[in-house]
Write a structure and sequence with these properties.
By secondary structure, the chain is mainly beta. The chain folds into two domains: 98 residues, Jelly Rolls, CATH 2.60.120; 60 residues, SH3 type barrels. It has no helices and 16 strands. Strands 11, 12, 13, 14, 15 and 16 form a six-stranded antiparallel beta sheet that branches. A hairpin with a 2-residue loop joins strand 13 and strand 14. The radius of gyration is 16 Å and the shape is globular. The two termini are 25 Å apart. The mean pLDDT is 95.
Length: 166
């Protein structure tokens, strides 16, 4: 989904090998329900990350994790998250690390993107978080969000119902 991933150690795809990665989550990011075939150890390095377990995104089930906090997700468990502001989350485990989206995932690159997304890459838009240009779109189940780049180069996420053409 959104954010930048930095591999700090190992290869997440390598079977039986430890790995450590940092994920920079953009402000406004909702990570839809997904699972991994490995235990996931999560530490919030910067910002505040909200984390929950379950097959359906449930804002009421989110647990606030401030910088320094730790969470554990056993392999095969369904999980989801939310980042109201930018956050950095560190994940470590033993590979192979894969993501299984509960409701699948689509992007603006998919051949049938226009059947899912109202907006397209390059659209100039406004949202409650600010104005900018759509650089990517992500959809999983009913959750549709866009990655928007501001004129200053910063990026944030916004839900489709919040985004309007300028």
């Amino acid at each position: 989904m959104s954010g930048d991933v930095e591999i700090l150690y190992g290869d997440p795809d390598a079977i039986g090998q430890p790995f450590v990665m940092r994920i920079r989550e953009l402000a406004g990011t909702v990570v839809p329900p997904h699972s991994h075939p490995v235990d996931e150890h999560i530490t919030v390095v910067r910002g505040t990350w909200y984390f929950g377990l379950g097959e359906t995104f449930d804002a009421g089930a989110l647990r606030e994790l401030k910088a320094g906090a730790y969470a554990f997700a056993p392999r095969g468990s369904w999980m989801f998250g939310y980042s109201p502001d930018e956050a950095i989350v560190q994940v470590h485990g033993v590979g192979p690390f894969q993501i299984h989206w509960h409701d699948g995932v689509k992007t603006l690159d998919d051949s049938d993107a226009s059947s899912t997304f109202r907006h397209k890459r390059g659209d100039r838009v406004t949202s409650p978080r600010g104005n900018g240009v759509i650089v990517e779109g992500y959809a999983s189940g009913k959750l549709i969000q866009y990655e928007i780049e501001e004129s200053t180069g910063g990026r944030f996420m916004a839900h489709e119902h919040e985004v309007r053409l300028q």
